Structure formats: structure tokens, C-alpha cells
């Protein structure tokens, strides 16, 4: 590069920096002005006196929004009916799911080829008698008997005598076993000289442990009687070295009084970085601890998140048991009741995630809390360099849609090293041809390139006629004409909302372990059109969009609309992928002419070992299917059914296993993570 080129590039960057600095200064001034006005309002005596009335008003507004979110009166009635059934179903996940005498006898008599000793670690501290008895009895009633309960007690002088006496009572009971048969006590107990907090006390529990597998259990919670049985079954069948299950919070002393049931995805690293969704009941092979600690005191409050991140990094076979097997008691002072009861947990969680990211080679990143919850994080990775991005937009007619799309890219985007490839495929109208001329000769001529799919007779039938529309072929042709390191496939009926949408997609697409990255798309009324794709969701049992039609400000199931996460697929309406990975899997399969080609493409990436990621921080409007209509009737419906059958056949093995990021306890007939209430408890499936 010559000195003149360097000087030109420098001046260009200088002008860009000055413009951005000016925009920042304007926003800061506006922010200060708004903050001044807000403070003046909040300090007004009338405002303070109106607090009760405002709280009531906001409650009414929230209820109104919840009703509006259902879309219609019919939707509201359906939701109420579902909630009634779901509440009833909660009982089926509680004591009703406990084993019958017949099931208990069958599980107790099961002889596994490998029956590991599982040491369950429980740190004690001033544990209330009811909580302590419930906890111990839930272990004693396990249908798998080769366990060890390791208790390290840091209770103060006021409580130590009661706690130790109760433990001794159960030690004697277990040793006697009703017939004096047990030779060794399965309950190990240690009095600590002082309370060392959750981390320190649990580490002392580990000193008592003799098992090949270690389980982590809280002193105020309850285990399902079958949890160890299902875990050992998975250890034998899947060689599991790290296991976890679904869980619920409950209030009071009755596990049937559930507050929230949490049905989790299988292991998903991006979910885990953003949110400790694994949590309970973690059981892992002891060898995973070699050369490292169990709990690190510097992460007290989120010591489990730190431990899970470290040990799952080492594990070879992480297995999720999709059954509700852990009951997390909610009471005053517990994390289950309120994260604000332990505010230090928030900073500890950020520290644990940061430590994990540094171990994986990330140096420049930012971790911030989201609107969903203080410990549900947005992770902003560094965008390395400024690689060229090619935005490929197939188009036929629809000049107004295309113009809105391109204008929004140019006017909104702060990333500037990109090109737009418009793939013209069959337009005849004068309006679109006029717009193409404007693009070729106007101010965007250096950014936008229009390529004709049928230019010089290319892609035509032998007799010169045009073949049936093939979206996949159009996309592949557009990509072949691109020059960028990264590809964005973008529908012409989209409109950019987020100014840094390309950076939000690129920070994931640049990762070596990531394939496709998808954005959060809204309908014009701000309801959700796309937030990730779930396999087998919908009537055709092919794939469907999660949270479809939900209000834009909805937090999603367990906050899922507020953090980047791993999914099986993302929509091709806005999808970024590196050109190298696009070519590696052969681009879009032209056997899927119109539908399911994007899902097929993502599954090809997944088949190569890449992750597909949905990020809610890149947002666009999507005027869905304006360019070609919906697949609901006539020839479109026939074509969609044929492509669905092709998809179900091609990916039968994958579909039969189910979507790893969508719990099998959820309904495949609804997109809102509703419980499959017809099936009740997954424990019924033996």
C-alpha cells in the first residue's frame, strides 16, 4: 500500500471517528437532560405520595399486556385452560411421580454391570430440623442403594447439638436397616471447627467422600427417590461422567406446591456461559477433579457455576436426564427465593464466567446482566479485525420492500466493511428495474451489486423457459458472486433495527466452534417471528420457530429471549456464516426448493460438529413471506408437504432423537415452551 493510500485510509478513519464521537456526545447530552428531568420527577413529593396508586396501575397494565400477548379472546381462554391443566400436572411431577411398590422393588432389584458408589456432599449450617430430616430421608429412600451421604457441619454453638443429634439418629437407623444387616454406615458426618461458608464446608464434605462419583446436594432441598437409579442407568448406558436433571422450586414443606418447574436443554455451552441452567442435581466422576479444586472460595455465591464450567470442560460424556428429579426449596434467605438475598452471587457469577472464557482463549470480552435476571448474562466477544461481510439478498419484484431493506442496512449499520449482493430472479416490472438502475448508478453503487440469476440464459431450461422457483439455487448463486469472508443471508422483506447487528452476529460467526448465527426477528407489530428453530415443532413435525407470536418484550421461557444460546437451527431470513463453512457443507441443498433449506443447512453444519447460535441482540423486522406468500394452500401447500417428507426422510435419525435444546417434556404443538400436559410426568416413560 502506498503512502497516499495510507493517508487516505487514515483520513477516512479519522472522519469516521469524529462522526461517531459527535454522535456519542449528542447521546450523552440527551441522556443527562433526561436524567435531570427524571430525578426532578422522582424527588417531587406528589410523585412519592402517588407510589401506591402507580403500583396498582402498573399491575393492571401488566395483566392487560399478558392478555394482549395471547392475541385474541380465544387465545386467552386457551391459555387459562392450559394453566389450569398445567397446575394439575404439577402434582404429577411431585409425589404422584414417586415409585409404586412394584416400581420400587423392580429398581431396587436391578443389577447394573457397573454400580458405582455415589458420594453425596451436603454442607450443613444451622439447618432447621424439618429441612434436615427431609433432606436425609430423601437420600435414605433412594431406589439405588450404593450411596454415601457426606455431611460437614459448620453450625454455630446454638445449633450444633441439635444438628449432630439428628444426624446420629439417622446414622443409627441406617446402620440398623431394620434387621441389623448393614456393616458400614452410609452417612458420614464431620463437625467443623468453624463455618467456612458454602465452598469451604462442601470441600470438607469431599474429604469424607469415598465414591467414584460425587453428587452435590443442598441441606434444605429434596431428591426424587429415583434420581440415583436413573443416573446410574445413564452411567452404564452412555458412559456419563457428568449428569444433571430437571428441577422445580417449591414453597413451604410440600413439594407439590411448586412455584416454577425448570425443564432444561441438553448440554449447551453458550447457554451455560450466559446462565447457570444446569444447577441441580450435579453428579460427576471423581476423576474430573484431578488437579483442580471442587469449590473455589473466591466464587462463593456462584461456586456451583464456576465448578460446573470447569468440570464440564473436562467431561467427555455430559448427560442430561430429562426428568424432574430435584426439588429446590424456596424460603426466606435462599437463592431459590430471591437472588437479591445474596447480591454477592451476581459478581461471583460474572467472575466465574470470565475465568472460564479466559481459559478458552478469550481476552477481550464484556459480561453484563440482562433485563431477564441479574445472573442471566449478555457476553460481548471481541470482533477480530474488520473482515468483509457479503449480504446476499434474493429478490423478485417488491421494489418497496427491497428499498426499505437496503436503506435500513445503509442508514442503521455502524459496521462498514460490507457489500450487498442482490440476486435478481425473474422480475418483470418497471418499478424494480428502475430501482436496480438507481442502485447501479447512485450513491450506493460501490456497496450494492445486482446479479441476474438468469443472465445470458443461465439456469434456464433447455427450451429457454424458466424452471420452477428454487430459493436454494438463487442463494447459492448469490454466494458464488460474493467476495466477503462472511456471508449474511437476508430476506428482502427485512428491516434493520439494531445499529450493531452485524457485529452481534459476527462475534459468534468468528468463533471456530460456531456454524450459523441467527438474529431475533419481529413482525411489524413487534411480536416475535424468530428466536431460534426447534426440530419437530409444529403440525408437520419438521421444524418450527420458538416463542412465535409472543410479545417483543417477553422474557421468554426462563429468560431465553434475553441471552445468546445454542439452537439446532436458525432461519435463513437473517443468517450469518463464514464463507469457508458455507462451502464446507456445500451451501444450500437445492433439493429443498423453497422451504426447510435453512434448517437443512444448519443441520449439515451441526453434523460437522459446529454449533448454531441464536442471539437476541441482533434485531430486525421481518415482513414474513411478503415476497412469496405462505405455504398454506394450493400448490404451495403440496410443495411444502413434499419438502417436509424429504426433510423427515433425510434427517430421520436426528429427528428421532429429538431436539437436544428443547426438553421432551414440552409440547411439540405449541411454540411457547408449554408443558406437554397430556403426557404428564416423563417418569411415566420407563
Structural description of this entry:
The protein has 686 residues and is of the alpha/beta class. The protein folds into three domains: 17-49; 101-362, Spore Coat Polysaccharide Biosynthesis Protein SpsA, Chain A, CATH 3.90.550; 389-657, Spore Coat Polysaccharide Biosynthesis Protein SpsA, Chain A (Alpha-Beta Complex), CATH 3.90.550.10. The termini are far apart. The model is unreliable at 680-686 (pLDDT under 50).
Give keywords.
686 residues; alpha/beta; Spore Coat Polysaccharide Biosynthesis Protein SpsA, Chain A; 3 domains; ten-stranded mixed beta sheet; nine-stranded mixed beta sheet; 20 helices; 38% helix; globular
As for the CATH topology of the largest domain, it is Spore Coat Polysaccharide Biosynthesis Protein SpsA, Chain A
State the domain count. 3
Oligomer: single chain
Assigned CATH architecture of the largest domain: Alpha-Beta Complex
Low-confidence spans: pLDDT under 50, at least 5 residues?
A: 680-686
Question: CATH superfamily name of the largest domain?
Answer: Spore Coat Polysaccharide Biosynthesis Protein SpsA, Chain A
Percentage of helical residues? 25-40%
The helix tally amounts to 20
Approximately what portion of the residues adopt beta-strand conformation? 15-25%
Count of strand segments: 23
Q: Kindly report the average pLDDT value.
A: 91
**Whole-Å distance between the termini?**
69 Å
- Rg, please? 29 Å
The description of the largest β-sheet is: 10 strands, mixed
Class inferred from helices and paired strands? alpha/beta
* Outline type: globular
What top-tier CATH class of the largest domain fits best?
Alpha Beta
